[in-house]
UniProtKB/TrEMBL annotation:
GO terms for molecular function: catalytic activity. It comes from marine metagenome. Residues 1-72 form the Adenylosuccinate lyase C-terminal domain. Pfam families: ADSL_C. This is Adenylosuccinate lyase C-terminal domain-containing protein. Coiled coil: none annotated.
Amino acid sequence: LLALTQKGLSRQEAYKIIQSAATKSFNTKNRFEDIIEEDTEIKKYLNKTDLEKLLYSENKISHIDDIFREAFET
């Protein structure tokens, strides 16, 4: 979302694109990353290198313990 707004989209437009991709991923059981990589609207703003950095960054897993703790806290 943030990457799209940094490329010139409004927050509302970026949210709509990401929400649509997330819904499609959920409904089709396809990976969110695959949906994002093939989205023609996203490709207008983010190239393959941009997407790889966002989707496959090691930074995503650096907080995995916190994410799981928060998600499964009882």
